[in-house]
Amino acid sequence: MVIRMTSILILNGPNLNLLGTRQPEVYGHTTLDDIRALCVQAAEDLGCTIAFEQTNSEATLIDMIHDAPGTHDGIILNAGAYTHTSIALMDALAAVELPAIELHLSNIHAREDFRHRSYISKVALGVICGLGPQGYPLALRALHDHLV
Ligand code: CA2
Predict the structure, then answer these.
(1) CA 115 from chain center: how many Å?
(2) Whether the predicted model's global pTM rises above the 0.90 cut
(3) Ligand 1 atom nearest residue 23's Cα
């Protein structure tokens, strides 16, 4: 019998590819590649594998969620602005029945009213927001602990 390591899919949505290059007063100077490196290190410390992806497309996010079962054991999702609009993403997460952590760099509850509603929260195991890039390794640890 082949036993594989716990695997966690980390999905980043629209505009997060711009991190560190625009609006540093809101999102800081850390790039998405820096965050990827934080996640790789955290996964190594935990003894799990990760896939780290970014797309600006809602459809691609949904496809990646659909494809996760069988390869990944859980999902960390920073859906960007789709968090506040996408019933389709919420339905995809609910359909695959993998534990998911919703993640945001900023504290969405301290920002504009339209950021206070999250469709993802309704189907998430938990939510981490407002802790900047360090939220990613924290989410990995929390999801890994939930899974093992
Ligand atoms: O705080 C977060 O992580 C967000 O998911 C980021 C989204 C925002 O729409 C959510 O409400 C909260 C926006 C990501 C945009 O990232 C940029 C980075 C640099 C420059 C411009 C946008």
Answers:
(1) 16
(2) yes
(3) 20
Mean pLDDT on 90-97: 97
Contact 32, 38 (CB under 8 A): no
Q: Is the distance from CB of 11 to CB of 18 less than 8 angstroms?
A: no
Q: For 53, how many CA atoms within 13 A lie in the half-sphere containing its CB?
A: 20
Q: Is residue 2 part of a domain?
A: no
**CATH code: domain of residue 51:** 3.40.50.9100
Q: Tell me the mean pLDDT in the region 73-85.
A: 98
Residue 59 Cα to ligand 1 midpoint, Å, equals: 18
Active site residues: 27, 104
Total structural domains in the chain? Answer: 1
Tokens of 80: 């960007």
Please give the angle made by the CA atoms of 54, 18 and 64, to the nearest 5 degrees. Answer: 10
- pLDDT of amino acid 22: 87
- Measured in Å, residue 80 CA sits from the centre of ligand 1 at 5
- Mean pLDDT score across all residues of the chain: 97
